[in-house]
């Protein structure tokens, strides 16, 4: 794991350590990479859960946090939680896509190989792990 001298890195390091520890306790074949700059830190984690692939991206930059938590069966997206500024999610939340919401992160869930989109509450990695255990 890379850490630097910036305040951002020292704030984020413990969060990623806890996230990796939870992944190792829950999943198999856990591997990860942390990419850090003074402005942001990204964790990319891959793992296995039964016959599923788990793909996690956690991006932290002050004051924002973005995430992608995906469960794949081969190449099929069983479930994909993220808070990207997805145009479909923005339209579902606000009824239209306008300039005022153009880059707004909207928590949502992709299902049925991304054919279905459902608005959700913001998700944390522990929430995702609990969802995996309850639903797969």
Structural notes for this entry:
The protein is of the alpha+beta class and 136 residues long. It has a 7-stranded antiparallel beta sheet, with helices on both faces. The two termini are 30 Å apart. It is built from 3 helices and 7 strands. The longest helix has 20 residues, at 7-26.
Summarize the helices and strands and which ones pair or pack.
Elements: H1 7-26, E1 28-36, E2 41-49, E3 52-61, E4 64-73, E5 76-82, H2 87-94, E6 108-111, E7 116-119, H3 125-135
Antiparallel strand pairs: 1-2, 2-3, 3-4, 4-5, 5-6, 6-7
Number of strands: 7
Helix content: 25-40%
Put simply, the count of helices is 3
> What is the residue-averaged pLDDT?
88
Largest sheet data: 7 strands, antiparallel
- The secondary structure category is alpha+beta
CA distance, first residue to last residue: 30 Å
User: What's the shape?
Assistant: globular
| Percent in strands | 35-45%
Keywords:
alpha+beta; 3 helices; 136 residues; 39% strand; disordered N terminus; 7-stranded antiparallel β-sheet; globular
Describe the structure concisely for a colleague.
The chain is built from three helices and seven strands. The chain is α+β, with helices and mostly antiparallel strands and 136 residues long.
């Amino acid at each position: 794991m890379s850490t630097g001298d910036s305040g951002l890195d020292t704030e984020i390091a413990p969060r990623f350590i806890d996230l990796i520890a939870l992944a190792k306790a829950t999943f198999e074949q856990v591997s990860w990479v942390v990419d850090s700059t003074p402005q942001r830190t990204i964790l990319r984690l891959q793992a296995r859960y039964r016959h599923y692939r788990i793909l996690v991206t956690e991006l932290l930059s002050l004051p924002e946090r973005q995430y992608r938590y995906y469960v794949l069966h081969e190449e099929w997206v069983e479930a994909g939680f993220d808070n990207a500024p997805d145009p479909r999610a923005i339209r579902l939340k606000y009824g239209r896509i306008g300039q005022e919401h153009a880059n707004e992160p909207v928590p949502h869930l992709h299902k049925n190989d991304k054919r279905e989109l459902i608005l959700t509450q913001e998700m944390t990695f522990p929430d995702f792990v609990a969802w995996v255990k309850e639903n797969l």
